[in-house]
Design brief:
Elements: H1 11-19, E1 25-29, H2 35-39, E2 47-50, H3 55-63, E3 76-79, H4 90-103, E4 110-112, H5 114-122, E5 126-130, E6 139-142
Protein name: Ribose ABC transporter
GO molecular function: D-ribose pyranase activity; fucose binding; L-fucose mutarotase activity
Pfam families: RbsD_FucU
């Protein structure tokens, strides 16, 4: 057990988050996302898991140790709902609140079309699957820097 580290961040997840560099991306996804097959194509090559929690709770844990990239406009992205790209379901609203809390201010979350999301996810550093059962609980985050 470590002090001041969210207990959801298991050793494998912590290793990946620490190994990532500025500009690397990570996927946090729901249970319906093809997480294992997509994860095999990522830099890490293995699926990571934070089971039994919502996407928002997993995002809260991850963003407790990972800064978002301030050099780009799309450091937080959500999968668009097919046929309704501007709709923001509850799961995405909850994740938006977790992002804003972690960053200490309102933080823009951009959207990305579903099939394009899959292609971006394959190029990510890693994929973290959650226990989120609601649809469209899939997000991509770009790691930023910690100032000296």
């Amino acid at each position: 057990m470590l002090k001041n580290i969210d207990p959801l961040l298991n050793a494998d997840v912590l290793y990946a988050l620490r190994a990532m560099g500025h500009g690397d991306t990570l996927v946090i996804c729901d249970t319906n996302f093809p997480a294992d097959s997509v994860a095999r194509e990522t830099v890490l090559g293995d699926l990571l898991r934070i089971d039994g929690v919502t996407a928002a709770r997993a995002v809260e844990a991850v963003l407790s140790v990972v800064p978002l990239d301030t050099f780009v406009d799309d450091s937080a992205r959500r999968m668009e709902i097919v046929g309704s790209p501007d709709e923001i379901p509850a799961v995405q609203q909850e994740v938006q609140a977790a992002i804003d809390k972690a960053e200490g201010k309102s933080w823009p979350m951009t959207s990305i079309e579903r099939m394009e999301f899959y292609e971006h996810a394959k190029k990510a550093y890693c994929v973290i699957a959650t226990g989120e059962r609601r649809f469209y609980g899939c997000f991509i985050f770009r790691k930023g820097v910690i100032a000296p």
